[in-house]
Amino acid sequence: MDRLTVRLPPDLARRFDAAAAGHGGRSRLLRRLIEGAAQASLPAAETPSISPSSGKLTLRLGVDDLAVLEAAAAHAGLSRTQWAVALIRRRLHGRPQLTPSDSVVFIGVQRELRRIGVNVNQIARALNTAVLEGQVLALEVAQLDAFATEIRGHLSELQAAFRCNLDYWSDR
């Protein structure tokens, strides 16, 4: 005897179980429905619905295009599916798409900015709690200026990196 397996959403399975309870259970009702369908004419094809949580997109590419795609994906440290998804998301949402190596760089920049922020907070606390005069105050202010310059430099590099990322995933 052949066996059929069907995947159903949980709510549909519960409703079917409720209906099948009065007909001797799932198997018996399914058997009757299949027998009836096998004798009746085939119904019109239903339009498939796309699940709101995800969907599948299949692409067929020529050998040359596939080779270029695989090279680009490998260069970015991604699989070809990850690369294609990043490209589509960039176009749909207009946000940067970080590759694994990009993520490491951005985490490093974040760590540096956090380190500088801790130093600035320590200096601000010292300035608020102590009465500093003359040269000591000038040294603290000079250090704050150096940190501000360093932060501006990191922010400029971060902006340039985001621009490069957005340019990479944009139309060429």
Keywords, please?
70% helix; elongated; mainly alpha; 172 residues
Shape summary: elongated
Tell me the β content. under 5%
Task: Say how many strands there are.
Answer: 0
Multimerization status: single chain
User: What's the helix count?
Assistant: 6
- Low-confidence parts lasting 5 or more residues at pLDDT below 50? none
Round the Cα radius of gyration to an integer and report it: 31 Å
What string gives the helices and strands in order? HHHHHH
- For the termini, the CA-CA separation is 58 Å
Approximately how much helix is present in the residues?
Answer: 55-70%
Provide a descriptive summary of the structure in words.
With 172 residues, the chain is mostly helical. Helix content is 70%, strand content 0%. It is built from 6 helices and no strands. Helix 1 (10-21) packs across helix 2 (26-39), helix 3 packs across helix 4 (80-93) and helix 5 runs antiparallel to helix 6. The longest helix has 36 residues, at 134-169. The mean pLDDT is 80.
Write the layout of secondary structure elements.
Elements: H1 10-21, H2 26-39, H3 63-76, H4 80-93, H5 100-129, H6 134-169
Helix pairs in contact: 1-2, 3-4, 5-6
Sum this structure up briefly.
With 172 residues, the chain is an all-alpha fold.
